[in-house]
Design goal:
single chain; 395 residues; alpha/beta; Aminopeptidase; Alpha-Beta Plaits; elongated
């Protein structure tokens, strides 16, 4: 088969995918609260003649079968949740929900997957095998909707051989796609730390156990987890973004609360780093007579793009978009719960270009001005459909 049929179907569907995307964008829902979005997806699939079922309350799984069963199944995945951000874009489809916005492109992922489902359903007489569509909740919040969907059996009955996920990338121009084999995105863990000392008057520090001074020592000391414990060849990040003391100019508080993140790209080092963090926290606090309450919430694992599958997906993308429109991706220290799938079956997570400098569409994800060039929508839908069929019909 050649991709021309899929390109034509995607082009015909352009305005419909825009409508889907704009509806979802205007009606965003936070992680694990995607009840209206899930109902909308169910309705759209039903209108296509595609049956679906719920998993993990707000997750949806659907299946399209080709002309015959060749014993192969592939899964395509999209996430549906939005972020707690107030939209600054002045567009007709601006978020109607105060303080909630599709600032990470999950509206794009969902509408593109709906488009891929439509295209594959319309062309099912032309290919063999099965395609499973996973519309998943809660990518933006631990424990990650992917983990819940997996626990409820999304990778069974039928069991896909592989899974492909697509994510918007505003730094790549529309019409292009990016790929990277092997380790691609970092693990992510959340650190919650309370340092308990003894508060008092700021003029009499000798009578107190100052948790503010200890927190400063800890932030500095914990950087040694990276600089003196991590292998320099393994990307690692340890950052603290919240420190709350609630004292005053002359008041030393009883405690200081801190939140941070630890990210890396090696699972063995990740486990050892947790122990290093615990040891440093306890030793520094003990040295000054304070105590600590430390919680490290283990988040998403390292995302690993299967080399065989990703090589195949890249080759297929070249056929669909042209060699000049395929870019190499760098390591990305952000995290994605798609990584959970990559630890279960061969996975490929690639980037769809959605930026357009001429139109002024350049804002990063997770910002109140994030938007996309909607010409990327039929590309995203058609490319996913073509990838699925090419995988199913490979020799």
């Amino acid at each position: 088969m050649k991709p021309d049929l899929f390109k034509a179907k995607a082009a015909d569907l352009h305005h419909q995918i825009i409508a889907w995307r704009r509806h979802i964008h205007a009606n965003p829902e936070l992680s694990f609260q995607e009840f209206n979005t899930a109902a909308y997806v169910e309705t759209m699939l039903g209108e296509m003649g595609i049956a679906s079922q719920r998993l993990a309350e707000t997750g949806i799984v659907a299946l399209v079968k080709g002309s015959s069963d060749n014993g192969r199944t592939i899964a395509l995945r999209a996430d549906m949740d939005a972020l707690p951000i107030t939209e600054a874009n002045e567009v007709d489809y601006k978020s109607k929900i105060e303080g909630v916005m599709h600032a990470c492109g999950h509206d794009v992922h969902t509408s593109c997957l709906l488009g891929a489902a439509y295209i594959l359903h319309e062309t099912r007489e032309h290919w063999k095998g099965e395609v499973k569509f996973i519309f998943q909740p809660g990518e933006e919040k631990l424990p990650g909707g992917a983990s819940l969907m997996i626990n409820e059996g999304v990778l069974t009955n039928p069991a896909p051989e592989a899974i492909i996920g697509q994510h918007v990338m505003p730094f790549i121009e529309t019409g292009k796609a990016g790929f990277r084999s092997g380790i691609y995105m970092a693990s992510t863990d959340e650190i919650y730390l309370t340092i308990k000392g003894k508060g008092g008057h700021g003029a009499m520090p000798h009578l107190n156990i100052d948790p503010v001074a200890i927190s400063a020592q800890l932030i500095t000391a914990l950087q040694q987890v990276i600089s003196r414990n991590a292998n320099p060849t393994v990307p690692s990040v340890l950052s603290f973004g919240k420190v709350i003391a609630n004292g005053a100019t002359n008041v030393i508080p009883d405690q200081v609360y801190m939140e941070g993140t630890f990210r890396t790209m090696d699972e063995n080092w990740r486990a050892r780093a947790h122990e290093c963090i615990k040891e440093i926290v306890n030793s520094v606090c003990s040295m000054y007579g304070a105590t600590a309450v430390l919680e490290i919430r283990k988040g998403y694992p390292v995302l690993n793009n299967d080399e065989v599958l990703t090589t195949h997906a890249r080759k297929v993308a070249v056929e669909y978009l042209g060699q000049e429109n395929i870019v190499d991706l760098d390591l990305w220290m952000a995290a994605e719960d798609f990584a959970f799938y990559s630890h279960k079956i061969p996975a490929c997570f690639y980037r769809l270009g959605t930026g357009n400098k001429e139109k002024g569409i350049t804002s990063s994800v997770h910002t109140p001005t994030f938007n996309i060039d909607e010409n990327a929508l039929p590309i995203g839908a058609g490319l996913m459909a073509w990838m699925a069929v090419s995988f199913l019909e490979r020799p």
